[in-house]
Structures are given as C-alpha cells and as structure tokens.
C-alpha cells in the first residue's frame, strides 16, 4: 500500500478519533477495501489509536470535558473485555470478524438514523431541560 494512501487514511481516522467518534469505524473498512487483511487492519487501527487517543485525551482534559468519576466504572470493564475479545479475535477466522464488524456498523447506522428521525442531539437536549 502506498505511503500516500496510508497518510490519507491516517488523516481520516485521526479526524474522527480526535472528535471522539472512533476513527476505527472508518479506518478498518477503508483499510480492508484497500486490500489489507481484516486482522491486520484491526491491528493497525489499534496501533494508530494509541497516539491518537493520547493527543485527543490531552485536549479534552485541557478543555475540562472529562468526567473523572466515570473513569473507573467505564475503563476497568472496557480494558478487561478488550483483552478477552482480543484473545477471541486471534482465533476467529477473518470472515467472522468481517461479518461481525459489518453487523456492528449496520446496527450503529440504523441507531443513528433512528436518533436523527426522532430529533437527534438537539431533541434529546431539549427533552432533558
């Protein structure tokens, strides 16, 4: 894969990751469409996530956007299940990973469309007031 394509994919993933939207949601499908095997695409996504998340975390912390009381209840189970499912993914065939990720993206898309049709973020914010 050419350096320019990797650079463009990094820009796209970094832009979404910096905004907290999960750059891997875009990066993994783009890498696989570019011919990268599924397991390698997932590994590259995780590797690129480390510096990307550190930079985004620093910016969000500086802007006071972090809820420190949510750190342990969110991070501990996330870290545990990430390790468990990483072990599982190592043994699953690439086709199962592709299918699982496709189902996840489909579900996520349908949920976002439903949210949009119900008024989206502005509608929920107005309901809370």
Question: Gist?
Answer:
This protein is mainly α and 129 residues long. The protein has helices spanning 3-18, 24-33, 38-62, 71-91, 94-117, 120-128. Helix 1 (3-18) packs antiparallel against helix 2 (24-33).
If you had to describe this structure to a student in words, what would you say it looks like?
- The protein is an all-alpha fold.
- It folds into 2 domains: 1-68, no CATH class; 93-129.
- It is 81% helix and 0% strand.
- It is built from 6 helices and no strands.
- The protein has helices at residues 3-18, 24-33, 38-62, 71-91, 94-117, 120-128.
- Helix 2 packs antiparallel against helix 3.
- The radius of gyration is 17 Å and the shape is globular.
- The model has no long low-confidence stretch (mean pLDDT 81).
Low-confidence residue ranges:
none
Q: Radius of gyration in whole Å, from Cα?
A: 17 Å
How many beta-strand segments? 0
Counting structural domains, the number is 2
Molecular shape: globular
Largest sheet descriptor: none
* Order of secondary-structure elements: HHHHHH
**End-to-end separation:** 50 Å
Please give the count of helices: 6
Give the helix level as a range of percent: over 70%
User: How would you classify the helix and strand content by structural class?
Assistant: mainly alpha
């Amino acid at each position: 894969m050419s350096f320019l394509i990797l650079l463009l994919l990094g820009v796209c993933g970094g832009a979404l990751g910096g905004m907290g939207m999960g750059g891997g949601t875009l990066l993994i499908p783009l890498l696989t469409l570019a011919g990268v095997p599924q397991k390698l695409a997932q590994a590259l996504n995780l590797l690129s996530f480390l510096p990307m998340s550190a930079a985004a975390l620093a910016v969000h912390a500086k802007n006071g956007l972090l809820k420190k009381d949510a750190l342990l209840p969110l991070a501990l189970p996330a870290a545990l299940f990430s390790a468990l499912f990483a072990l599982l993914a190592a043994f699953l065939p690439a086709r199962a990973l592709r299918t699982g990720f496709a189902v996840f993206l489909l579900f996520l898309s349908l949920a976002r469309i439903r949210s949009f049709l119900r008024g989206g973020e502005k509608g929920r914010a107005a309901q809370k007031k």
